[in-house]
Amino acid sequence: MILYAASKLLSFGAAKLNQNHSTMHHFQKLEVWGMSMTLSYEIHEATKKFPKNELYGITSQMRRASVSIPSSIAEGSGRKSEKEFLECLYMANGSAYELYTQIILAFKANYIDEDSKNNLLNKLSSILKKLFKLIQKLSKI
Protein backbone atom coordinates (compact mmCIF):
# COMPACT_ATOMS: atom_id res chain seq x y z
CA MET A 1 0.00 0.00 0.00
CA ILE A 2 2.75 2.45 0.88
CA LEU A 3 4.64 1.77 -2.36
CA TYR A 4 1.44 2.36 -4.33
CA ALA A 5 0.89 5.65 -2.49
CA ALA A 6 4.44 6.76 -3.16
CA SER A 7 4.06 6.07 -6.87
CA LYS A 8 0.96 8.26 -6.88
CA LEU A 9 2.98 11.12 -5.38
CA LEU A 10 5.30 11.17 -8.37
CA SER A 11 2.73 13.29 -10.19
CA PHE A 12 3.27 15.94 -7.49
CA GLY A 13 7.03 16.01 -8.03
CA ALA A 14 7.87 13.56 -5.25
CA ALA A 15 10.21 10.62 -5.50
CA LYS A 16 10.48 7.52 -3.38
CA LEU A 17 13.40 5.86 -1.71
CA ASN A 18 13.40 2.38 -0.23
CA GLN A 19 15.34 2.33 2.98
CA ASN A 20 15.02 -0.40 5.60
CA HIS A 21 11.84 -1.68 3.89
CA SER A 22 9.99 1.60 4.39
CA THR A 23 9.14 4.29 1.87
CA MET A 24 10.35 7.84 2.26
CA HIS A 25 9.45 10.76 0.02
CA HIS A 26 12.00 13.24 -1.20
CA PHE A 27 10.27 16.28 0.21
CA GLN A 28 12.79 18.56 -1.52
CA LYS A 29 11.23 17.58 -4.84
CA LEU A 30 7.71 18.53 -3.76
CA GLU A 31 6.85 21.85 -5.36
CA VAL A 32 4.71 22.83 -2.37
CA TRP A 33 7.73 22.36 -0.07
CA GLY A 34 9.88 24.65 -2.23
CA MET A 35 7.16 27.27 -2.44
CA SER A 36 6.70 27.24 1.33
CA MET A 37 10.47 27.52 1.89
CA THR A 38 10.53 30.63 -0.31
CA LEU A 39 7.53 32.11 1.50
CA SER A 40 9.15 31.44 4.87
CA TYR A 41 12.21 33.42 3.78
CA GLU A 42 10.01 36.27 2.54
CA ILE A 43 8.12 36.33 5.84
CA HIS A 44 11.40 36.49 7.72
CA GLU A 45 12.52 39.42 5.56
CA ALA A 46 9.19 41.25 5.93
CA THR A 47 9.15 40.87 9.71
CA LYS A 48 12.62 42.44 10.03
CA LYS A 49 10.84 45.75 9.50
CA PHE A 50 8.31 45.19 12.29
CA PRO A 51 8.60 47.22 15.49
CA LYS A 52 11.12 45.87 17.99
CA ASN A 53 8.41 45.60 20.65
CA GLU A 54 6.75 42.94 18.44
CA LEU A 55 9.83 40.70 18.35
CA TYR A 56 8.23 38.23 20.78
CA GLY A 57 4.72 38.89 19.50
CA ILE A 58 3.50 38.80 15.92
CA THR A 59 7.05 38.77 14.50
CA SER A 60 7.85 35.51 16.27
CA GLN A 61 4.42 34.03 15.55
CA MET A 62 4.64 34.73 11.82
CA ARG A 63 8.15 33.35 11.57
CA ARG A 64 7.23 30.18 13.47
CA ALA A 65 4.05 29.61 11.45
CA SER A 66 5.91 30.12 8.16
CA VAL A 67 8.71 27.74 9.16
CA SER A 68 6.17 25.18 10.32
CA ILE A 69 4.70 24.75 6.83
CA PRO A 70 7.76 23.29 5.04
CA SER A 71 8.96 21.65 8.28
CA SER A 72 5.72 19.70 8.66
CA ILE A 73 5.89 18.59 5.02
CA ALA A 74 9.46 17.41 5.54
CA GLU A 75 8.59 15.65 8.80
CA GLY A 76 5.68 13.84 7.20
CA SER A 77 7.82 12.64 4.33
CA GLY A 78 9.97 10.71 6.77
CA ARG A 79 7.10 9.01 8.57
CA LYS A 80 6.33 5.31 8.26
CA SER A 81 2.90 5.48 6.70
CA GLU A 82 0.81 7.57 4.34
CA LYS A 83 -1.59 8.21 7.23
CA GLU A 84 1.20 9.81 9.23
CA PHE A 85 2.29 11.81 6.19
CA LEU A 86 -1.29 13.05 5.83
CA GLU A 87 -1.39 14.11 9.49
CA CYS A 88 1.72 16.22 8.94
CA LEU A 89 0.22 17.74 5.80
CA TYR A 90 -2.83 18.71 7.86
CA MET A 91 -0.48 20.39 10.37
CA ALA A 92 1.17 22.29 7.51
CA ASN A 93 -2.27 23.32 6.30
CA GLY A 94 -3.21 24.59 9.76
CA SER A 95 0.01 26.58 10.00
CA ALA A 96 -0.71 28.11 6.60
CA TYR A 97 -4.12 29.33 7.78
CA GLU A 98 -2.55 30.64 10.97
CA LEU A 99 -0.04 32.60 8.86
CA TYR A 100 -2.85 33.87 6.61
CA THR A 101 -4.52 35.45 9.64
CA GLN A 102 -1.25 36.91 10.91
CA ILE A 103 -0.49 38.54 7.55
CA ILE A 104 -3.87 40.28 7.66
CA LEU A 105 -3.22 41.39 11.26
CA ALA A 106 0.21 42.73 10.28
CA PHE A 107 -1.43 44.75 7.52
CA LYS A 108 -4.13 46.11 9.84
CA ALA A 109 -1.40 47.14 12.30
CA ASN A 110 0.38 48.95 9.43
CA TYR A 111 3.47 46.71 9.69
CA ILE A 112 3.22 45.79 6.00
CA ASP A 113 1.75 47.71 3.09
CA GLU A 114 -1.10 46.52 0.90
CA ASP A 115 1.18 45.35 -1.92
CA SER A 116 3.20 43.22 0.49
CA LYS A 117 0.04 41.82 2.05
CA ASN A 118 -1.40 40.90 -1.35
CA ASN A 119 1.88 39.37 -2.54
CA LEU A 120 2.25 37.22 0.59
CA LEU A 121 -1.41 36.17 0.60
CA ASN A 122 -1.30 35.24 -3.09
CA LYS A 123 1.74 33.04 -2.52
CA LEU A 124 0.15 31.51 0.54
CA SER A 125 -3.07 30.83 -1.38
CA SER A 126 -1.07 28.96 -4.03
CA ILE A 127 0.57 26.89 -1.30
CA LEU A 128 -2.81 26.12 0.27
CA LYS A 129 -4.19 24.96 -3.11
CA LYS A 130 -1.23 22.64 -3.67
CA LEU A 131 -1.47 21.28 -0.13
CA PHE A 132 -5.19 20.64 -0.64
CA LYS A 133 -4.54 18.73 -3.87
CA LEU A 134 -1.80 16.67 -2.26
CA ILE A 135 -4.01 15.88 0.73
CA GLN A 136 -6.88 14.92 -1.59
CA LYS A 137 -4.62 12.66 -3.64
CA LEU A 138 -3.22 10.90 -0.58
CA SER A 139 -6.65 10.56 1.01
CA LYS A 140 -7.85 8.51 -1.96
CA ILE A 141 -5.01 6.00 -1.67
Description:
With about 140 residues, the chain is mainly alpha-helical. The chain has one domain (about 1-140): 23S rRNA-intervening sequence (de novo design (two linked rop proteins), Up-down Bundle), CATH 1.20.1440. It is about 70% helix and about 5% strand. It has 5 helices and 2 strands; from the N terminus they run H-E-E-H-H-H-H. The protein has helices at about 1-10, 30-45, 60-75, 80-110, 115-140, and strands at about 15-20, 20-25. The protein has a two-stranded antiparallel sheet. Helix 2 (about 30-45) packs antiparallel against helix 3 and helix 2 packs antiparallel against helix 5.
Architecture blueprint of SSEs:
Layout lengths: L1 H8 L6 E4 L2 E4 L5 H17 L10 H20 L4 H27 L5 H26 L2
Antiparallel strand pairs: 1-2
Helix pairs in contact: 2-3, 2-5, 3-4, 4-5
Strand order, main sheet: write it out. 1-2
Give the low-confidence spans.
1-23
Number of strands: 2
What's the overall geometry? elongated
Straight-line N-to-C gap: 8 Å
Radius of gyration: 16 Å
Major sheet attributes: 2 strands, antiparallel
Strand residue percentage? 5-15%
Under CATH, the homologous superfamily reads 23S rRNA-intervening sequence
Mean of residue pLDDT values = 86
Number of helices: 5
CATH architecture: Up-down Bundle
Helix content: 55-70%
The CATH class assignment is Mainly Alpha
Oligomer: single chain
Q: Per CATH, what is the topology?
A: de novo design (two linked rop proteins)
- The domain tally reads 1
Helix/strand order? HEEHHHH
Structural class by SSE content: mainly alpha
